[in-house]
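step: validate -> pass
step: tokenize input -> pass
step: predict -> running
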Amino acid sequence: MTRPLPRAPVSLAPSAGERELVVVKLGGSVVRSGELAAWLDAIASAPVPIVVVPGGGALADEVRSCQAALGFGDRAAHRMALLAMDQLAWAVAGLAQGFAVGTTEAELRAALERGDVAVWAPYGLVAGRGDIEESWRLTSDSLALWLAGRIGASRCFLVKSVRREGTRAGVRELAQAGIVDAAFPAMLKDASVPAFLLGRGDQKTFAAALAAEDAGAGGFAAVIA
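step: predict -> pass
step: emit ->
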């Protein structure tokens, strides 16, 4: 993969007239899939500043297995899953030039100002917060949306290893099917950030969505409502 052209400096929570900021959540199954390189290329080529939120993937699955075997509580499991996301953030950033890990808003801002794609390692910003549920009901899907609202992103794309059908996806149906976490419907309402679902082979759809003049548009991505 080639290093992307430097983007113009951007601040988090952009003001009127500034280019939009987009959050892209890469599902853990995507990180382990043969499509990861294609998605990283698509993100690196994006014309807008992007913050990537990796899922916990197999590392988070191992936390679930350990919890079942050892019996520790959800508070510990939640923090261990956050650390799994941190590790996947470093893995993603280590696979391509121009991707830089950040934990705090200041670190994410610094990465974007350098023209990098920012990759969020959430533990330092999220662990122990009273406003974020410490259970398996709330995972990386909801955290991506929470971050999008916090930093003033215009859109949040969820990239999943699913076959997307149509251009609309019901949020409660997605939660019931386990495609997004159980807390996602409430987080979607609270964050007030448009969210879109992308599936296997949707890299061109992602590019088309970013090229749309309407920041609330998803191209042919499935709007989650």
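step: describe -> The domain at 22-224 is CATH 3.40.1160.10 (Carbamate kinase).
step: cleanup -> pass
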